[in-house]
Task: structure prediction
Amino acid sequence: MAAQVPTEALKELKVAEANGKGAKPEPAADDDHGDDSDDDAEDNAAATGAAKKKKKRKPKKKKKNPTAQSEPPRVKVSQLFPNGTYPKGEEVEYKDENRYRTTSEEKRHLDNINTDFLTDYREAAEIHRQVRQYAQKVVRPGQTLTEIAETIEDGVRALTGHDGLAEGDAMKAGMGFPCGLSLNHCAAHYTPNAGNKMVLQQEDVMKVDFGVHVNGRIVDSAFTMAFEPKYDNLLQAVKEATNAGIREAGIDARVGEIGGVIQETMESFEVEIDGTTYPVKSIRNLTGHTILPYSIHGTKAVPIVKSNDQTKMEEGDVFAIETFGSTGNGYVRDDMEVSHYAKNTDVQHVDLRLSSAKSLLSVINKNFGTLPFCRRYLDRLGQEKYLLGLNSLVNSGIVEAYPPLCDKKGSYTAQFEHTILIRPTVKEVISRGDDY
Ligand SMILES: [Co+2]
Result:
């Protein structure tokens, strides 16, 4: 999920560029019941004495735990990795003055006392990889955005083993934030609301951005799908820019400098679409961000253009490194109907007058806490006619609306994103896969 630079900070950034001053952008195996029903039936037959036939005991068919993922993905990953050891992400050694960390006993100890954190993160990342790779295989033009979102969200929930329907279940594991499916000039935060009939077209460029969480540890990772080769350079620019950002990330790295490297990489590309050549621009008011437990946007931002932000990455930080390239203005605005929301992490108690707002807030507290959700998630919990209450929560500052963010009409935008753990010993690109 993209973090946005507030307009004020962006103005400041321009000033800062002029006078050299820093600008700070805001920022298991539990269905192993052997199949014994037919044995019971035979026992009953024997007990009645009616059957003279010899009791032929079939060898008990023991339903084995699946060892491979199904299609569509429905096997819990905890069943595929029954000893709880999930695949590691890509581990990258620190450089220069932090090189010692790889072999430091002290740093290794810090890693070892954090095993629950690592296990939850690696499980969430494996779920992300399995679900997205299935999506990459089956998502095609002609499908509705609603179908595509459900393909991904049903997959994520099944693989965590939490369908999120019982009160509080979605807080244990499941969607870390709604599945964004933003098309063409829209860069982020679009997902269908109920009744949306939009159909994916052959010429579309779709950003697929979804989160998986296990115990509040959110993996935030995104990719872009296009079905026409004319967009290849746009996608390549953004993929390389994101990888450049990941490469530059590390303990003591300054986020403003990382932004500079990202921008340089991104803007070394151009793309020809239907006879017109466009420079690929970094979208300057979108950023990467830190991730906190149950909170998708922490306090640090990672710009994707050069900036004087001297903020350093530190041991223990979790970052979403995401970059956006555009053939348009390289600047996004709020546009279209809101779908994404999240409770603010720093709300004081507010006395709500509207009873529908009060009851909706209680639903949000129990099922999402501060995790982002969308209108469809309220629908599936059986909530009805909640818009007035929801808007009142937004207006009172308790809930934040995250409207779709779009560049100018007719332009194309792309995104790639990974979550990285700034571990004491190494940097782990937790969501890395064979695909991106
Ligand atoms: Co993000």
